[in-house]
Amino acid sequence: MAQQQGLLTITGYVGGQPTQFNREGMPHASSFRLASTRHYFDGRTQQWKDLPTTWITVKAYRGLSESICQSFKKGEPVIVTGVLAAESWVDQNGKQQSKLVMEANAAGHDLSYGVSTFRKLAKKNDSGQQDAQPGQALGRDPYVQAAQQRGETSVNAMGGQSSGVDEQGGSQAGTDSNAAEPLREEFGGDGF
Length: 192
Description:
By secondary structure, the protein is mostly beta strands.
């Protein structure tokens, strides 16, 4: 039987530094408050106006939790996608309480307001140790290695000379498109 889950996406600002918490037998978890303010254009005054700010608690688990705690800072614009869930508890007066929380399955900075740099988290191997430190490459791109071994270079967008591809993979701006031809031949042509 299929389950229905309506994904919700909310844009807003991180209201406070994300905090980690643990529940017995559960993976890493974190939460933060997200402030989202809708705006509308008032035709009478010809100005944008704010509606009241909506605050929601966002919870994340496992790797997403770790990434959020390392990436998000108070006041930063973010986009969060997830599902709404109701949390219930009995307060100190014995009254049943509940609130809606968002259980995130994806989150990131809102690039409408700035730029961001992505850094892949280091994976842990079977012995529980990291294969590489954060920020270090876990492997080298075979196309880059082949180009570097042949000594291929090109002029980059800044006017300097470079190998045409960086160590993490991908072409640099200004790379000569003809430089890819020998790589196509060496690594199987059509799949390049």
